[in-house]
Amino acid sequence: MSVNLKHSVLIWLINQIQKFGPEKVVVLGKTYEISRDVFNPERYYTSRFMAEHIHVAAGDKVLDMGTGSGIQAVTAARTAGRVIAVDINPEAVRFAARNIRAHGLEEKVSVIQGDLFSSLDPAEKFDVILFTPPYFDGRPGTLFEHALIDPDKSLIKRFFGSAKNYLKEGGYVQMLYSSIAGNERVLRLMHGLGWEYSLMARSRIWMETFFIYKSRPL
Q1: Which pLDDT tens digit goes with each residue over 80-124?
Q2: Which of 79, 141, 190, 208 is the most exposed place for a label (fewest CB within 10 A)?
Q3: Could you give all domains of the chain from N- to C-terminal order, each with its CATH number?
Q4: Cα 142 to the center of its chain, rounded Å
Q5: For 27-64, b where at least 16 C-beta lie within 10 A, e where not — what string?
Q6: pTM for this model (two decimals)
């Protein structure tokens, strides 16, 4: 089976799971409300794996890029001083904001809609940017599929082309990526755009290996 066909099958399967998933889920002891158009943090290992390995210091200013349900923003806010959560999907923004309020974190976390950095003040600087990008090949047909599909790594290229402008000195990007999506190619792209990286965590589930990288501008 070709890579593109595998990705198409997985995208179809995820869309089916989204249709029939619960409206409330519990991950790492915290409850999150979701809809069929918001990435389910309980059904997919990436959300839990990233949340388990978030490294932020007390008082850090954190950007959660592609927040989805808000799970990473909620997790980071336990330690960070300030968190801004961004998503292109207005449904994700609505539910992330609802989850932030449910956890009593609205004084520490702001949720905004935007395409990557487009809605941020260019003067904003962060200690840590959290990023779990979509990694399937194809073309997103719905707003939800923007959480799954990155045609020809175009989102990765745009993100790492701009992210260094939003980092404080000494700041870094914490990114999760998958072996089934050409993680070695992504690392080469990052290096070509002026980034170095180190491995923070790795986990293998069935035929897929997930990697969390710490990336800094060269």
Answers
A1: 999 999 999 999 999 999 999 999 999 999 999 999 999 999 999
A2: 141
A3: 3-217 (3.40.50.150)
A4: 18
A5: beebebbbeebbbbbbebbbbebbbeebebeeebbbbb
A6: 0.91
